[in-house]
Amino acid sequence: MLQNIQEKVGTNSRFDTQIHRRPTRTVMVGNVPIGSEHPIVVQSMINEDTLDIEKAARGICRLVDAGCEIVRVTTPSIAHAKAVGEIRSLLTQKGYQVPLVADVHHNGIKIAMEVLNHVDKVRINPGLFIFDKPGVKPNDFTTEEYEYIGERIRTTFEPLVKKLKEQNKALRIGVNHGSLAERMLFTYGDTPQGMVESAMEFIRICHALDFHNIIVSMKASRTPIMLAAYRLMAHTMDKEGYHYPLHLGVTEAGDGDYGRIKSTAGIAPLLADGIGDTIRVSLTEAPEKEIPVCYSILQSLGLRKTMVEYVACPSCGRTLFNLEEVLHKVRLATSHLTGLDIAVMGCIVNGPGEMADADYGYVGKTPGIISLYRGREEIGKVPESEGVTALIELIKEDGRWVDPV
Ligand code: SF4
């Protein structure tokens, strides 16, 4: 029977429960490796003014303390670029070694050349790297003008690529749907193709100079556009033999539940398809609030395990205790642990079968009594009032408990 089913469906990947990462090179950002051979990296960006050295350094420390692994700062001027050197020194004094990334925007070549001395990665936006004919309507480009601007981009960009190569640092080619260059808009329209070609133009220049420490992003605030752009980018790079890692994110996702859901709706499907090597959830909130969202996305896809995975039934007429209250108590007692799956299920009718191979189970047995499980094995019954304590004891017995800090 199983063989018949397998013959019918073949080994179709629709039935594959593993995520297969798109193979990429490894790009080092400081001491953090990014690429398909490594865990997906969580990053964010401070919103303090880079010129306020103390405040910016404190913002970076808060992000690192929250679990952020790479931090970006904005550098709109040479003064900002120089300030990053002071921020770096202050961080070193405080014992923080986190890799730093500088965001460089409009006509930013001089800024990029300066800030590269202080950071591990520079992010450029192809749409803003050179202002090509600002103010001109996008139906004004001739082939000669298109090529002339391409040549200006190449000659302006090359010194940065050479310096990146000399210093063995990384570059993010960070395309933004909202700031595509005029000539890309003219040629490809406001489309994923235009975004991809914007990045490819810069990738080809790097390739010609044998520079490969490249990470690419294709951000958009509209999730379907972002999804299409990343998929097309991954496909185009693979087809042309460029195996660079991808940085995923939805820009201007907003705040609160919707901001989190919108970011997840963009990032998670790509990760599930194996696309993406580092992520940022952009929220209009304190940057450190982005980090738990990143980890939740990664944990829920099984890509990183940084906390306890709770499996809980939705409760129904069979539920033998206040499930919401008990789950809350179990979470309070165990959320500092890592790497465990704990199930809280309302009844023994369906609970044990549906615990999804959890390491431990807390299951309603009869009114006022719960059963504890280790894996699929029922360990014993205890009164509900002692359930959480007994669960902790069981985890301790197995040597998997650590005291909260
Ligand atoms: Fe209902 Fe039991 Fe299923 Fe929970 S495990 S939803 S209590 S049948």
Please explain how this structure is put together.
- The chain is α/β, with parallel strands linked by helices and 405 residues long.
- The chain has 13 helices and 15 strands.
- It has 2 domains: 19-301, Dihydropteroate synthase-like (TIM Barrel, Alpha-Beta Barrel), CATH 3.20.20.20; 309-398, Sulfite Reductase Hemoprotein, domain 1.
- Iron/sulfur cluster (SF4) is lined by residues 313-316, 318-319, 345-347, 349-351, 354.
- Its cofactor is [4Fe-4S] cluster.
Please list the strands of the largest sheet in the order they lie side by side.
Answer: 8-7-6-5-4-3-10-9
Number of strands: 15
Helical residues, percent: 40-55%
Report the sheet with the most strands, covering strand number, pairing sense and barrel closure. 8 strands, parallel
CATH architecture of the largest domain: Alpha-Beta Barrel
The pLDDT mean sits at 92
SS-derived structural category:
alpha/beta
Number of domains: 2
Let me know the CATH homologous superfamily of the largest domain: Dihydropteroate synthase-like
Q: How many H/I helices?
A: 13
GO molecular function, one term: 4-hydroxy-3-methylbut-2-en-1-yl diphosphate synthase activity (ferredoxin)
Organism: Paulinella micropora
Cofactor: [4Fe-4S] cluster
Domain IspG TIM-barrel: 24-295
